[in-house]
Amino acid sequence: EEQLVESGxxxxxxxxxxxxxxxxxxxxxxxxxxxxxxxxxxxGLQWLSCISGRGGGTDYADSVRGRFILSRDDPKNTVFLQIxxxxxxDTAVYYCVTxxxxxxxxxWGQGTLVTVSS
Amino acid sequence: QTVVTQEPSFSVSPGGTVTLTCGLSSGSVSSIxxxxxxxxxxxxxxxxxxxxxDTRSSGVPDRFSGSILGTKAALTITxxxxxxxxxxxxxxxxxxxxxxxxxxxxxxxx
Lengths: 118, 110
Prior knowledge:
The complex is a heterodimer.
Chain A: E1 3-7, E2 10-12, E3 18-25, E4 33-39, E5 45-51, E6 58-60, E7 68-73, E8 78-83, E9 92-100, E10 104-108, E11 112-116
Parallel strand pairs in A: 2-11
Antiparallel strand pairs in A: 1-3, 3-8, 4-5, 4-9, 5-6, 7-8, 9-10, 9-11
Chain B: E1 4-6, E2 9-12, E3 18-24, E4 36-40, E5 47-51, E6 55-56, E7 64-69, E8 72-77, E9 87-93, E10 99-101, E11 105-109
Parallel strand pairs in B: 2-11
Antiparallel strand pairs in B: 1-3, 3-8, 4-5, 4-9, 5-6, 7-8, 9-10, 9-11
C-alpha cells in the first residue's frame, strides 16, 4: 500500500522551531515533486511549499518564505519541513502531498498537528 | 497577492446538478493555471477529484466533471448524492511555482 506518514508535530511556544518529516512507503519519492499543505482548525487549505524531484529546487508561499525550509532525502524516501520562528497563526494540520501535473496532489498523509501557543 | 475565489456555500437537491466555480481576484482562469479540484469530508485528508482542468482522477465517478466556464474554472456535479455533502477546494498554479487554494465551498445536499 502506498502511504505517506507525517511526523514531528506537537506543541511549541511562539518563536520556536519544529522539523516535520514525511516518510513514504510502498512507492519511491525519487523524481517526484513534493509539497506541504496546511489546514488551520476550521479553515481552508493553504499550499506552503514545493520541492522538485529533479534538482531539489524549492518554491514557497509568500507567507512562509524565509521561515520554512523544505528539503528531501531520497535514499531515505523522506521529505522534511523545517519551520522556524513559529507564530500562533502557524497552528494547523500539516500535510505532505505528492505533486504531479503541477496542481495534482494525489497522495496525502494523515497530517501532523502543529500547535503554537504559550 | 493572488486571491482565488470560490462560493463559500452552495445547496443542491438530491439528484440535482450543481456547478461550483473557481476564479481569480483579478483576471481570468484558463487551462494554463492547471485548475484542480479536491473534496474533503470532516476529519479526512482531501481527495483529488479533477486535475488539469478536466481530467478525472482515478476512481472518481463521471458525475464529477471539470471545465472552464467563462472566466472561471468549474466543477459540475450531476445526480447529487447525500455523501457529496462536504467541502470542495480548487487550486490554481499562479506562476513562479506558486499554487494557491481557494477558500473552499461547503456543499449542502438537501
